Amino acid sequence: MDFWDKPCYSVTKTISSLMGLWPYQSKKELIIHRTIIFFLFIIQVIPEILAVCHNSADFNIIMDSVGTFIMDAGFLINASTYFWNFKKMRILLDDIQENWKIFPEKRGRHILDKYAKDGGKLAIVYAVGICGSGIFFTTEPLQWRLLNSVFATNFNVPLFCTPMEYPIIDVEKYYYGLLFIQEISVAVVISMVVVYDLLFFIYSQHACGLFAALGYAIENLPVGRHSESHNRGFRYVKRCIQIHNRAIRFSNLLEDIVVWNFFLMMGLNMIIMSLTAVQVVSNMDAIGRLLKNCVFVASQLVHLFITCFMCQRIMDHSSDLQKKIANSRWCFTTVKTQQMIKLMILRSQIPSQLTAGKIMVMSLETFTVIVKTSASYFTEMEFWNRQYYSCLKFLSCLLGLWPYQSPKEILIHRTIAIILFVVQITPQMRIMLDRIREDWNIFLADKGLKILERYARQGQKFSLLYAGSLYISGIFTTLKPLQLRLMNILMKSNSSVPKFFMPMDYPLFNVDRYYYALFCLSELCVTIIIVMVLAYDLFFFLCAQHICGLFAALGAAIEKASTKPHLNDEIYNYFKSCVLIHRRTIEFAQLLDEILRWNTFILLGLTMIDMSMIELQVKYVEFKYLCKKLVLHLDDIGEVLKNLVFIASVMTRLFIVCFVAQRVTDHSCDFQKNVMNSRWSDAEIKSQKLIKFVLMRSQIPCRLTAGKLLVMSLELFTLIVKTSGSYFTMLLAMQ
After folding, report:
1. Number of DSSP helices (H) and strands (E) in the chain, helices first
2. Which of 6, 64, 215, 463 could make a disulfide contact with 324, Cβ separation 3.0–4.6 Å?
3. CB of 599 within 8 A of CB of 533?
4. What is the pLDDT of residues 317-370, one digit of tens each?
5. Which spans are transmembrane here (predicted)?
6. Integer angstrom CA distances of residue 200 from 87, 384, 539
7. What is the mean pLDDT of the chain?
8. Mind giving me the DSSP string for 328-348?
9. Domain segments of the chain as ranges
């Protein structure tokens, strides 16, 4: 069986061959298929141009035609990329076949196979999704005709899915024939985009598989005490370096192929998404056109997201190789082998990146920037079409995404997200707690245990103080009805008192009769919500304090290391154990980041409804709302006090999370200073080699992130407070 007939490659090969774009086709097949493809493309473009010329005064037809012409431009860009880089694309496919022969069956080839199968599944899902949306888009006339026939209506039915003009042909007589030809032509345009993306998936997945297989091979570095084992390890590392160079060359050649295609396609994507968004807003009263445009926008976003996502994966996999090298058993190899590993680490510090025009790095961050820029015009149109604003507001409130919802509603929706999140991460939490217990057993020396105990006690005091203050502020907020009732009794006043701290309705109960029971029930529910938030935060504090304690204990151990000449072997083993503990600490911090990042990412996603706030934390929206509410109730001292307590709780929680994350970063950086302050200059050369590797690894600080986009730190906190404070100042001035 041919290599490319494997299930993971067969879909891409079949579609590419039909389009005349498979590099292994004969010249005769290429000429025949490409001639047919361009003939179908031309017979579609000519009627579109005639339709614009004939209806130049009709704005709706012009808008529909602009989107179609941009798709045609994308067809030409992809086709030009194929023809210009046809030989390079074949070189990449040849490299893929050769790379499969390099790795042994159990030493990396199974990883290449896994990534190839994942790419094949992605190709099938992507091709079916894009083709399905294309069919939905192109069969609009038939859908409307079917609705008119079934429901006996008289809707205005367009002749074609895009504006077309046939001045010579009788359209009514040959309508279905012309419609079929147009369907085939549009399918050709869509297939050109799909084929380009499928080949890109093959290349990018293979690049990721190469870096992953190489990392696996490095982590399983063969070590031994005999000279033969040392020579085998040296040859093994030398071979890994050669494979690393092949992977880098593969990524660079892929970047040469896609660099200008990405640059042009990104510009077209921004234009077509803005135009389609305008059509969505302009046709809110026409459900059919609205649905059609929404499907079109979704297809564009999916196409753009997958492209940026695959580029991000290549960047991440090339960067992760450095961590794989650091986690390998390099400390058991010879000095000559370690020198080669050092060169490999230095080279892997520069990640492989795919760019658009060598100006913009393709990544998930680029995706957010493009979507934000494209949505700017849509946001402006939304403001000027306020009659449609109620629909957006209703859906946003229904999902808990409306920025001006009350803090109670936001709290409920976020609590549901936190509960689902905790259910997901419970196994990971157990792993981390087991590792904490193991770490305490590792530090048998009194110094190390005392430092861990000191940090654990600090964490306990901090947790008790935080839990008490947060729970007291929660009780203060929820007991407002009882406070006002007590004020009425003491002051003998008759002011209006709410029954509950937030609007609640019990249609099956007599609220006046069972008021205090229902009030206690609501207090219990709020307590559960607060305890859920506290449990998550306290677990975070526990793990973060343990990481800080590990770095501090390890730094103290290295600073106090003995360097007496007659203890060279013991000193070497001592430093080697420090290296292993350092690696455990880094792995622990990475696991904590994996647990935290998606929770923060979900909270961050609550503000995605407003594209202008896409780079801010979700706490900003909450604080912004509370500031507005505070300013608007300056004449009500009770409301002011309640909102001040709530604002203080929100900002205190945000500050503490950022502060603890900052401590983790600072302690990982301070460890480098501890190593520099040790008596490393008095140690023997092989011990100095170990210290050198530790120094190189400690140059990359441990950071806790929000969805790999924002680094949690005090700088982030000040940015949020500064931005939120500007809004508060403006409202205060207006008041």
Report:
1. 21, 4
2. 215
3. no
4. 888 888 888 778 777 777 777 888 888 888 888 888 888 888 788 888 888 877
5. 36-57, 69-86, 119-138, 174-194, 258-278, 290-311, 464-482, 514-534, 539-558
6. 15, 41, 42
7. 75
8. SSGGGS-HHHHHHHHHHHHHH
9. 3-384, 389-734
356: β partners? 360
CB 42 within 8 A of CB 34: no
Q: In this structure, are residues 675 and 555 in contact, taking their beta carbons and an 8 Å threshold?
A: yes
Q: How confident is the model at residue 412 (pLDDT cuts 50, 70, 90)?
A: low
Rounded to a whole number of angstroms, the distance between the first and last alpha carbons of the chain is 78
Helix (H) or strand (E) holding 361: strand 360-361
- Which residues are 248's β-sheet partners? none
Distance CA 268, CA 194 (A): 16
Q: 69 vs 614, which has greater pLDDT?
A: 69
Half-sphere exposure of 25 (CA within 13 A, CB side): 20
What pLDDT is attached to residue 232? 76
Angle at the Cα of 221 from the Cα atoms of 216 and 223, rounded to 5 degrees:
160
What is the average pLDDT across 190-204? 86
Paired strand residues for 706: 710
| HSE, side-chain direction, 13 A CA sphere, residue 221 | 29
C-alpha torsion 75→78→84→89, nearest 10? -140
> Would you list the DSSP string of 141-182?
HHHHHHHHHHHT------SSSS----SSS-TTTTHHHHHHHH
Q: H or E element: which one contains 711?
A: strand 710-711
**Residue 183, both tokens:** 């369907």
Token pair belonging to 287: 């459900």
Distances (CA, A) of 306 to 123, 448, 609: 11, 47, 21
Confidence of residue 414 (pLDDT cuts 50, 70, 90): low
Whose structure tokens read 């057993």?
Answer: 441
In sequence order, the 6+-apart residues with CB closer than 8 A to the CB of 97 are 3
Q: Which of 646, 622, 619 is nearest to 718 (CA)?
A: 619
Dihedrals phi, psi of 679, to nearest 5 degrees: -90, 55
Residues in the chain: 735
503: number of CA atoms within 13 Å, CB side?
Answer: 4
Task: Give the CA distances from residue 92 to residues 23, 68, 89, 96, 239, in Å, rounded to whole numbers and listed in that order.
Answer: 10, 32, 5, 6, 20
480-491 vs 637-677: helix axis angle to the nearest 10?
A: 130
Say if CB 14 and CB 24 are below 8 A apart: no
CA distance 601 to 611: 15
CB atoms within 10 A of CB 713: 20
Query: Cα(662)–Cα(703) distance, rounded to whole angstroms?
Result: 8
pLDDT band for position 729 (50/70/90)? Answer: low
